Amino acid sequence: MALRPYSREGQFWGPSPDLVLPQDHPARVVDEFVESLGVERLNHRFAHTPGEPAYDVRLLCKLWIFAYTRGITSARKLARECIENLACQFLTDGQTPDHRTLSGFRRAKRHLLRWVFAKTVVLARHMGLVRLGLVAIDSVKLQANARASRKRTVAQLKETLGKLDAFLAEAEAEDRRDDQRYGPHADAETLPKKLQQAKRRRAKLQRALTKLQADQAAQTAAEKAHVRQDVIPTDPDAVWVKKAGRIIAGDNAHAAVDREAGVVVAVKPVAAANEREELNPMLARVTQTAGAPAENAVLDNGYYSDEAIVQAEAGPTRCLVPDGPAARSLNQGQAPQPLDAYHGDQFGYDATTDAFTCPQGHRLEAQKKHTRRGQPTTVYRAPAEACANCPVRAQCTSDKSGVRAIEVHRQYAKIRQMKERLRSAEGQELYKQRKSTVEPVFGQWQHNRGVRRLQLRGLSGCGVELHLLAIGHNVLKFAARGVKF
């Protein structure tokens, strides 16, 4: 197919754009930003090809970025805006793509949108809007475009598939009888619509069943209480997440925000109800997108696990991630509550000898190594005779043996290092900036722009919309600071 003419030079479109939009309008920033990327080279595939003329990649890219800065996530609504909205008409030079074209572009060009997002981060670094001194990471739950009432268990899916198989078998038998009665070429009609729908539905249900069985098989023995029991066939990737006090089908959208100007520097969609496994993947995303690791990263206790902390401490980013008790104090604006005198963290630890020392001066030596809940741990025990004669034994341990024991991760020294950093004055001051850095971004997305529900299905669809939200957010940051490209 050919390419529709789309040029910002020498075009007369309605009234002068200078009269239509003010110079600082976000649509102008979107226009200048996309023009600076050189994405028009993607149009070469349409050169000298037959068919209906195609729309310029720049035009469609600008439209979707601007749409998400205004909270427009529906392709049909955006198609109407191209007719009625002056800013959209300015971006399209008066062209009016239909909703199918817009929807197809958004879904098909997810790799391009990821690249465009990375460009916003790189540009923000060059302009001094991103310094990576402090990055706050958090997640927001976005409701999936799927009805929760449509959920199905493995047994229900197999029952429905059995009924569809019986229906399709009967339809094929009837087709063979017709062939014998009238001949194989007597009727050249296509497959009946009802049969086509049945085959499509069967394929959808089979995909959902395969997905659910794979998720259940991936659960470890320690997670059997949380094994996934059902799936929504229209969006098998959607999981049950808690949002505003209720359980919804959706995805977890993770975002990393730089403290300097509130620019989003990394995003990641995840089909999981919690954040335990996403600390290090998000740190890696920051490095990949921004081109350098963050100096400090602050996260809430949802990201805490001993294994994740151990891995993070081996990297270049200093992380501040509280466990449950510490988070309750910090999130309420208080200093961490003082630990009980005989809490395990009050025991001195010598990394060179790999031993603890209790407040009474007794050493706890490493006795046994094993695995608990999938994590490698070491058990340290005090000498039985020392505990037997200890005057504070009742305060120190409630074990039937009367011997104090501590079970910690085998790399406990690294975990303790992070905890001590968090309890320091500098660490508490850094952690206080977490909410004011990342929460306003989610407030902008959900409250100001009204994006609480996804339009696209599947984890890849969530990723497309998440990147568009992040691109729109960063472009608005450029507009607010009068950035010129």
Topology overview:
Layout: H1 17-20, H2 26-35, H3 57-69, H4 75-84, H5 86-92, H6 99-108, H7 110-126, E1 134-143, E2 152-153, H8 154-182, H9 193-218, E3 230-231, E4 239-243, E5 246-258, E6 264-270, H10 279-290, E7 296-299, H11 306-313, E8 318-320, H12 324-331, E9 348-350, E10 355-357, E11 363-372, E12 375-381, H13 384-388, H14 393-396, E13 405-409, H15 412-423, H16 425-448, H17 458-480
Helix pairs in contact: 2-3, 2-17, 3-17, 4-5, 4-6, 7-17, 8-9, 11-15
Can you walk through the features of this model?
- The protein has 485 residues and is an alpha+beta fold.
- Helices cover 46% and strands 15% of the residues.
- The protein has helices at residues 17-20, 26-35, 57-69, 75-84, 86-92, 99-108, 110-126, 154-182, 193-218, 279-290, 306-313, 324-331, 384-388, 393-396, 412-423, 425-448, 458-480; strands at residues 134-143, 152-153, 230-231, 239-243, 246-258, 264-270, 296-299, 318-320, 348-350, 355-357, 363-372, 375-381, 405-409.
- The strands form 3 sheets. Strands 1, 4, 5, 6, 7 and 8 form a 6-stranded mixed beta sheet that branches.
- Strand 5 and strand 6 (264-270) form a beta hairpin.
- The longest helix is centred in the middle third of the chain and has 29 residues, at 154-182.
- 33% of the residues are buried.
